[in-house]
Amino acid sequence: MGVITCSCMVLAPSFAALATAQDPPPPTVSLGSAVVSITPRICILSEDIDECEESVQLEWKADTERSLCLYESASSTPIQCWQNQQQGNIQLPLSVSETVEFELRDYNDSLLVLAKTEFKVMHDKKKYRRSRRNPWSFF
């Protein structure tokens, strides 16, 4: 009785390289002496949903006590202001269909942006995705 051996090799793509290339940008951008972050950072909409409805937590910290206001980038009206604080946070309900950017601005000079963050909205379009399996594959 003979022994048959098979040397088989499984080929798999390197997902580490793909994950690195597709990682989202850092959640905060510090332009001055303050940092602002948002949680959650991303909402993925399926094809049948038009808006992302999410409650987000925005937190900020500064090097020293400051008077700051939180703005939606496209707005000239502050969402909330803090006076003589070194940190702050706010819980916001959002209902958006596109990415929203938030800015932490100086209380006395609303043109002075100290930090930014964004709530990214992504649209999942399954019908346009290419099949992962090649038609000629045996696996």
Q: Any guess at the CATH architecture?
A: Sandwich
> Helicity level, as a percent range?
under 10%
User: What fraction strand?
Assistant: over 45%
For this entry, what is the oligomeric state of its chains? single chain
Number of domains: 1
CATH fold description: Immunoglobulin-like
What secondary-structure arrangement, pairings included, does this model have?
Layout: H1 15-22, E1 29-30, E2 34-39, E3 42-45, E4 52-72, E5 80-96, E6 100-106, E7 113-123
Parallel strand pairs: 3-7
Antiparallel strand pairs: 1-7, 2-4, 4-5, 4-6, 6-7
Summary tags:
mainly beta; 139 residues; seven-stranded mixed beta sheet; 6% helix; Immunoglobulin-like; 7 strands; 49% strand; single chain
Task: Walk me through what this model shows.
There is one protein chain. The protein is mainly beta and 139 residues long. It has a single domain (24-125), classed as Immunoglobulins (Immunoglobulin-like, Sandwich), CATH 2.60.40.10. Helix content is 6%, strand content 49%. It has 1 helix and 7 strands. Strands 1, 2, 3, 4, 5, 6 and 7 form a 7-stranded mixed beta sheet that branches. The protein is elongated. It starts with 14 loop residues before the first helix and ends in a 16-residue tail after the last strand.
